[in-house]
Amino acid sequence: MNKSFLIFAIALIGFASCKKDKVVATTAPPAPRLIFKFKFDSTQVRLNNLGAPATLPATHKAQSPKFNSMSAHYIEMANDGELLGGGSILFNAPTTTAGGAAAIDFNQAVVVAEGQNFFSVPLSQVAAGTYKWLRVSLAYQNYDILYKSTALPGNQLGTGTIASFIGYNTYVTSYKIKTQTVVPSAATGGPGDHKQGYWGFETTVAGTAYTSDSQSPAGATTVVNPMPGSPIPAGSCVVTGQFVNTGGITQNLTITGKETSDIVITVSLSTNNSFEWVSHSGGSYFQPAAGDTVVDMGIRGLIPFSNQ
Predict the structure, then answer these.
(1) Side-chain-facing half-sphere of 125: CA atoms under 13 Å
(2) Neighbours of 282 (CB within 10 A)
(3) How far, rounded to the nearest angstrom, does the alpha carbon of residue 259 sit from its chain's CA centroid?
(4) Whole-angstrom Cα distance, residue 287 to residue 148?
(5) If we measure between CA atoms, which residue out of 40, 34, 35 comes closest to residue 303?
(6) CB atoms within 10 A of CB 119
(7) Sign of CA pseudo-dihedral 44, 45, 51, 55
(8) Fewer Cβ within 10 Å of end Cβ, the chain: N or C?
(9) Are 77 and 133 in contact (CB under 8 A)?
(10) What is the C-alpha R_g of the chain?
(11) DSSP states of 73-85 as a string?
């Protein structure tokens, strides 16, 4: 045998014996989750505190705002007869006592637009069972409204943005309404705890931004709760609705613990004439300079649509 060929063959065998099998990395599929998203619907039925259709008092006017974002601080799934806190609690937002009492910490709030995930949890961490009702405690909303003012050229309509704090108690040191970051005024208590109904307003006139803030009367915010035998504490904003499927048919939500895909809950909120005021001006548009006063900024209903 040729000596050179023998040396080459030995080297080839040595290379083959040293070669390791290629390891193919595998990635486990993500665990299925329970996902919550907001939808803002100005055509959804307008309800009162007890979940019955609501009309406006003769001296009141209202409009359906253009919603920009929303924040929630509590989520619970429940069944008939279960009092608040007696169901499956999924989420509690951070709170603080920096202002004295327990309050929602707005600095840590998750504020999202329509269609964005505002909360999700692995389905493996959700108690298996069948649920009829969803409770969502809303904390903050941001939306645009139309208003009328003699300060506008030709007394035309203007657009303003409202930042509205509707949680039971919120610790607020500063917040951005649209383009302006504001600090709560001394007239509303300044930086610190603010009860349900505190709100700020921003508008631009002739290129200059103007802001103001105010506090709605206690108990004036509508909180829709059609669930029988389960009262909601005064001053909170725990809005309740019955689960339906994507076809709009009432259907309980069932969690088995063996799901292989995400369950998505679209929390549809009724914004139907949700911005309400006492009309002292007699006009159809909000005119604060003419004495119109805000009386309600509450969401007018909740329908949780499940993709089950």
Answers:
(1) 11
(2) 10
(3) 26
(4) 5
(5) 40
(6) 19
(7) positive
(8) N
(9) yes
(10) 27
(11) EEEEEE-TTPPTT
Structure tokens at 55: 């009309």
Q: What are phi and psi of 114, to 5 degrees?
A: -60, 135
* Residue-by-residue pLDDT tens, the chain, 308 positions: 444 444 434 444 444 444 455 555 567 778 999 999 999 999 999 999 999 999 999 999 999 999 999 999 999 999 999 999 999 999 999 999 999 999 999 999 999 999 999 999 999 999 999 999 999 999 999 999 999 987 787 667 899 999 999 999 999 999 999 999 999 999 999 999 999 999 999 999 888 999 999 999 898 999 999 999 999 998 899 999 999 998 889 999 999 989 999 999 999 999 999 999 999 888 788 998 888 999 999 999 999 999 98
Torsion of CA 154, 204, 294, 270, to 10 degrees: 110
> Which residue type, as a one-letter code, is found at position 87?
G
| Helices and strands counted in the chain (H then E) | 1, 23
Tokens, residue 92: 């509690």
> In sequence order, which ranges of 146-278 are alpha helices (DSSP H)?
none
Give me the residue label for tokens 């900024």.
297
Q: Is 50 exposed, middle or buried (0-12, 13-18, 19+ CB in 10 A)?
A: exposed
